[in-house]
Amino acid sequence: MNAAATDPPRTPGNTQLGKYRIESMLGAGAMGIVYRAFDPHIERHVALKTIRHELFESGERESLKARLRNEAQAAGRLAHPNIVGVYDYGETADTAYIAMELVSGHGLKQWLDAGRPLAAATALDWFGQLLAALGFAHEHGVVHRDIKPANLLVNAEGRLKVADFGVAHVASSTLTLTGAMIGTPSYMSPEQFTGEPVDGRSDLFSAAIVLYQMLAGCRPFAGASQAEVMRQVMHETPRMPSACNPALPSALDAVLMRALSRRPDARFQTANALRRALDVATDGTAHIATTAAEDDRTILEAQAVTLASGTGSWRGDSLPSLTMWPAALLAPVEAQLAAQIGPVARLLVRRAAARIADAPDLPALVALLAPHIPSDKGRAQFVAAFADASKAGTSRGPSPSSSLGAEDVQAAALRLAVYLGPIATIVAKREASRAASLRALHERLAAAISNEADRARFERDIGL
User: Fold this and answer.
1) CB-based burial of residue 102 (10 Å sphere; 0-12 exposed, 13-18 middle, 19+ buried)?
2) How far apart are CA 209 and CA 212, in angstroms?
3) pLDDT digits (tens, 9 = 90+) for 425-452
4) 391 labelled ligand-binding
5) Strand 105-107, strand 44-51: pairing
6) Do 421 and 343 contact (CB within 8 A), yes or no?
7) pLDDT the model gives residue 191
8) Cβ–Cβ < 8 Å for 331, 317
9) Structure pTM?
10) Catalytic site residues?
11) What is the pLDDT of residues 128-158, one digit of tens each?
12) Phi/psi at 127 (nearest 5 deg)?
């Protein structure tokens, strides 16, 4: 389990549980509390998952113990590098516990709660590890039944591990009811909602929701209530992932839509089949490129898009119709969007502009881009910046020779955000306090861009 405890250490009244010495609390949930503990017999730290005392004292004692034993039975038979290992199960007079592998890292939920897409290379890498774990579990007769970001841990080395087999169904076990509706609504398959028997294809449906969220920055089914989520899962087809994140190739749309089919027999039947489909979808249609070592940003792009020298218009081999858009119109849109979501704004603007290249229209472009901003406040600021089309005119901003002012710093920060993302505002304010002139500020901001090609483009755009 996750070893990244941030709360002050808390321990039960007795700091010893069986042979384990309790050291601190790692987390708490509706069913139990997880502690960091030490096994003195083999001198190993473990995560100790216990049932809450108040629950254990209720009439649900036996069912809670059965669920915890089920988790130990399910995960204990699965020795795999992408599955949290279970070492021991025990009971005392006032609780039951399982000792498991202590994972130093964070839950995937922490990354996804920001509401932004992950770098595609990272998302696909983690998802591949998830598929490896699920494929292994299914081959050994175990269906997890509650795949969701909170149950997926990522350690410091980038290894993903599946945790919490508490509601798993083991083929040879009678500890769980196959007809029960068990899971987390936003990640449940249709057959889980209807209480039908589930198999590995249900886990793959839930896993596809996680991949969709990692790549698109939002969930495919996201109603305001559990009933609404259920209605969407049972009756609606979600938006294509690329509608949320135009940086995604259409081949990924096809894979995810099949993986999210309502009928189990229409989905990929095994984890390996889904993995092969993803390999095909990301080979040749798009490449996942990581920049030089000094620049750790990862982006998904179809082909390089450049600013045509001397034309004042956007063009590129992959998007030839962008020549209809004047550069002076797109540049501030890109800058404003980048201030909210980072460097991926460059690609999103080009993709959106290409969709309406036959009739360039600023309000339409803003409407296409606004949904990519996760926060309501940020989205409102972006739309307000272009409420009047004249705000996106051809002005390139203040002259480098002018004196420093708040507007100058903000304008420079917006241009810098194309390369550094939202942190650009902090960098610009910091450097403004050290610069004697606007030109000096621009030079200092250019120096903050580690990638040489990006730095050269920034210098050209800013007028250095």
Assistant:
1) buried
2) 5
3) 777 887 888 888 888 888 888 888 877 7
4) no
5) unpaired
6) yes
7) 92
8) no
9) 0.57
10) 146
11) 999 999 999 999 888 888 899 988 999 888 8
12) -65, -35
pLDDT above 70 coverage of the chain, percent: 73
Which pair of structure tokens corresponds to residue 152? 């997926």
Q: Among 339, 349, 366, 351, which residue's Cα sits nearest to residue 420?
A: 339
Taken in order 388, 392, 348, 302, the sign of the CA dihedral is positive
d(CA 18, CA 142): 28
Which one is predicted more confidently, 12 or 305?
12
**Cβ contact 164:31 at 8 Å:** no
Amino acid (1-letter code) at residue 228: E
Cα–Cα distance, 358 to 324 (Å, whole number)? 7
Contacts of 388 (CB under 8 A, 6+ apart): none
Sorted by where each starts, the structural domains of the chain and their CATH numbers stand as 16-100 (3.30.200.20), 106-281 (1.10.510.10), 302-462 (no CATH)
Name residue 324's amino acid: M
Q: Does residue 167 contact residue 67 with C-beta atoms inside 8 Å?
A: yes
* Paired strand residues for 25: 35
pLDDT attached to residue 319: 37
